[in-house]
TrEMBL record:
Its main location: cytoplasm. GO terms for biological process: protein import into nucleus. This is Importin-4. InterPro entries: ARM-like (IPR011989), ARM-type_fold (IPR016024), HEAT_type_2 (IPR021133), IMB1_TNPO1-like_TPR (IPR058584), Importin-beta_N (IPR001494), Importin_beta (IPR040122), TPR_IPO4/5 (IPR057672). One of its GO terms (cellular component) is cytoplasm. HEAT repeats lie at residues 379-417, 420-455. It comes from Rhizophora mucronata (Asiatic mangrove). The lineage of its organism: Eukaryota, Viridiplantae, Streptophyta, Embryophyta, Tracheophyta.
Length: 684
């Protein structure tokens, strides 16, 4: 097999795609035979070209798992010996790293079985070698072995920590320092012992030094590992940071302020500040770091986004999120500096400063609500002035801030409606669609908690909103519908003169079927339910049937948000109609059950990145026999489906409440309801 396999390995490395494909198929067939292990081992040791040796190691890593138990003790010993030789004598770094990966896989089975007692002593010896390559590969192995046999390192943690600290301070090799940084990250991720983790506090100065050196040499990706380490330390409940928090904050502020660095690197630094505000806010107070952080964050708010920059990584957006987190966790320490910044910057000739002045006030309104309520007049003076600014970005930020105030500064904001509503009315006719959209949002949030105070403004408001529903782009129509819904809720019976026109317009939205229009259809369905509640059963029941038909037909479209809003519509109609809603139960109850039974759609993000994928070996080295553990990077849940389920459960409760005996004809529904009700509070 060895000779034919060598030819196939060479053929696989050819540029001809057909030749590569043929070689890949034959290699996969040969790999099912346990004899592939000695053949690959031979090529790892003796092949003339580094690429062939590397490919042999990559394949060996994938195939040895399935064949290890079938190998004789003598041959297992040869495998381990050959791998050690490759690590210590190989001149090619990619081959050396590929061999180290094989060691990790073999160690997963051999070390727990007591078949490789000399591996750890070898690694300690190797890590103190005079040769840079040996020290580096030993640290690489410590990193990878932590994921597979980390528990066997626990008796040696003190020695390992001393070794890692020494390697972080290696004066002759940047590669060794980087490998040590990665190893520290692996060990921190592995250990859950607070007493062990605390010992890593002494590593922080050295970690910062390595990170700075990496940034200076352009190795941003490596420097980011330092932020990942700090993340682990910050989230730990153990008191890990001490006065080192000052150094971490200083470094993070340096990085996020540097416009020469990659956006992703700056974003990582901002995340560290955010985590510190969330988990270690007392440390920020103790070491008087709040003001220095806010000074940098407010400065970042004034930074213009680069044309090719991802919006989610833009420093001004990330800085706003940090200020928001700080306001929630340190409101008394955040409000005054931010208010002072806004008071000064609102008059600046630079539009970015004027925009930042109102953005900052908007983002702190949730955390600093009590303090802001005491300063409503000067704050509104700044924001309403910005709403009349000559620049649309400033006006848009002001609209956003008003929306935040309307959401978080209730009920005090409503008492200023005589000043606020006329300004919003003017903003609804702004030349910028973005300003209009944010103004609809502000209007919706403000009107939601207004009552009869809205009546003097009702006619001009509805005139503008009805016109917008007919003539605006789709995204504006959606936010406009939310505003109309809030106005209808506030006006109640006074909304009746406008209801017929609104409902007539909604008919055209509730039959849309194109994917890009379904969000508007969802909003329209929601709005009809709100209008129905406002005008009452007497006026709504005679015209209800076509709206119910349109709403039910929406379940034939695969769009969770539409189903969620439709359940809300059914809830409102059931409450409005009372026992007369029983006629619709055969249609709507099964739909609610169907939503409740949906899969939440949890998703697992697997990290399978390694050298072989980067070098094009991923296809030939993957098969169903490989049992290597991939690393789970992230677990997510489709919250849209959970929102749909919550809406469906609420609808079921209202069906039962308002149709009573008619709903009792659904025995399975009653059982289902009794099971779901204890969970509904959590989903809400």
């Amino acid at each position: 097999m060895a000779q034919s396999l060598e030819l196939l390995l060479i053929q696989f490395l050819m540029p001809d795609n057909d030749a590569r494909r043929q070689a890949e198929e034959q290699i996969k067939r040969l790999a099912k035979d346990p004899q592939v292990v000695p053949a690959l081992l031979q090529h790892l040791r003796t092949a003339k070209t580094p690429n062939v040796r590397q490919l042999a190691a990559v394949l060996l890593r994938k195939k040895i798992t399935g064949h290890w138990a079938k190998l004789s003790p003598q041959f297992k010993h040869l495998v381990k010996q050959s791998l050690i030789e490759s690590i210590t004598m190989e001149h090619s770094p990619p081959v050396r790293r590929a061999s180290a990966n094989v060691v990790s896989v073999v160690a997963k089975y051999a070390v727990p079985a007591g078949e490789w007692p000399d591996l750890l002593p070898f690694l300690f010896q190797c890590s103190q070698s005079a040769q840079e390559d040996h020290r580096e590969v030993a640290l690489i192995l410590f990193s990878s072995l932590t994921e597979t046999i980390g528990i066997t390192f626990q008796p040696h943690f003190a020695d390992l920590q001393a070794l890692l600290l020494k390697c972080l301070q290696d004066e002759t090799s940047g590669r060794v320092r980087v490998a040590a940084l990665k190893a520290v990250g692996s060990f921190l991720e592995f250990t859950n012992d607070g007493a062990e983790v605390v010992k890593f506090r002494q590593f922080i100065p050295s970690i910062l030094n390595v990170a700075r050196q990496c940034l200076a040499s352009g190795d941003d990706d490596v420097a980011v590992i330092a932020f990942e380490i700090f993340d682990e330390l910050i989230e730990s409940p153990a008191p890990l940071l001490g006065d080192s928090v000052k150094s971490i904050v200083q470094f993070s502020l340096e990085v996020c302020s540097s416009q020469n660095l990659e956006s992703s690197t700056r974003h990582q630094a901002l995340q560290i500040i955010s985590w510190l505000a969330k988990y270690k806010s007392s440390s920020l107070k103790k070491y008087k770091l709040v003001i220095p952080i806010l000074q940098v964050m407010c400065s970042l708010l004034t930074e213009s986004k680069k044309s090719d920059e991802d919006d989610d990584l833009a420093p001004d957006r990330a800085a706003a999120e940090v200020i928001d987190t700080m306001a929630v966790n340190l409101p008394k320490h955040v409000f005054s500096p931010v208010f002072e910044f806004s008071s000064v910057s609102c008059q600046n000739v630079n539009l970015k400063y004027r925009e930042a002045s109102v953005t900052a006030l908007g983002v702190i309104s949730e955390g600093c609500l009590e303090l802001m309520k005491e300063k409503m007049e000067p704050i509104l003076h700044i924001v309403l002035g910005a709403l009349r600014d000559s620049d649309e970005m400033v006006r848009g930020a002001a609209s956003f801030a008003l929306g935040q105030f309307a959401e978080h500064l209730q009920p005090e904001i409503v008492s200023h409606y005589e000043n606020v509503l006329p300004c919003i009315l003017n903003a609804l006719e702004d030349s910028s669609d973005e300003v209009k959209e944010k103004s609809y949002y502000a209007l919706a949030a403000l009107c939601e908690d207004m009552g009869e105070e809205i009546l003097p403004f009702l006619d001009p408001l509805m005139g503008k909103l009805l016109a917008a529903l007919q003539d605006s782009p789709c995204n504006l129509q959606e936010t406009c519908m939310s505003a109309v819904g809030s106005v209808a809720s506030a006006a109640e019976q006074a909304f009746i003169p406008y209801a017929e026109r609104v409902l007539e317009l909604m008919k055209s939205f509730m039959v849309l079927t194109n994917d890009e229009d379904l969000r508007a259809r969802a909003r329209a369905t929601e709005l009809v339910g709100i209008v129905a509640m406002s005008v009452g059963r007497l006026r709504m029941e005679p015209i209800l049937h076509p709206f119910m038909e349109a709403a039910i037909s929406g379940f034939g479209l695969d769009f969770s948000e539409l189903r969620e809003y439709t359940h809300g519509f059914f809830s409102n109609v059931a409450e409005m109609m009372g026992d007369s809603f029983a006629q619709y139960l055969p249609h709507v109850v099964p739909l609610a059950f169907s939503s409740c039974n949906l899969d939440d759609g949890s998703a697992v993000d697997i990290d399978e990145s390694d050298d072989e994928n980067r070098n094009g070996f991923g296809g030939v080295s993957s098969d169903d026999e490989a049992h290597d553990d991939s690393r789970v990077r992230n677990i997510s849940i489709r919250t849209g489906v959970l929102d749909e389920k919550a809406a469906a459960m609420q609808a079921i409760g209202l069906f039962a409440q308002h149709t009573k005996s008619a709903y009792a004809l659904y025995p399975c529904a009653l059982t289902f309801l009794s099971l779901l009700l204890p969970c509904s509070d959590n989903l809400d």
